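Exercise: predict the fold of this chain.
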Amino acid sequence: MTLHNAPPVVYPLGRSRFQGLLFLGIWLLGLLVCVLWFAATRQPDWRMAVALAAVLVAGTAAYSAWSNTPVGQLRWDGKVWCWESLSYQTGAAEYELTVIADAQHVLLLRLENPARARLWLWAERKASPERWLDLRRAVYSPHKSHSTSQHTDLPSSETPAAVAVSDSMHAVDVARTTP
């Protein structure tokens, strides 16, 4: 069986209406809790003032995050993912894309460059309905990442022989453990 990569696709991304409504809904729930707390006790005190201030700060932070959402294009050329935007150019050509949440008409994506810098993006079907299925095929298609093949400058005879079972264990020198 031969696996084929998804065809190339360019998809526009920007401020997500879904993300804005999600932030607004969560903020309104926090505000509702404060109002219900006040209605139940009828005695405002410093704790209620702190809770209300926290809800207002959270609402301001959510609005700021939504309004500063990066705008650009996500491009899949059949081999690598690229993010094309004036505000997010790191000079790296290859990115790793992970689907964090899938609500059929909305995708929450995490784009990560080789330096581990992450960019969270919301993709909505409304942005480009004619290319939506192409994007979905591309994000779910199996493909090999070029970053998984590690290159070393040392010849194979000079590479150190070491084995590490997990991050919590130290490397073991194979030459010392084998007779």
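Check your answer against the key: Residues 37 and 43 are 9 Å apart (CA to CA).
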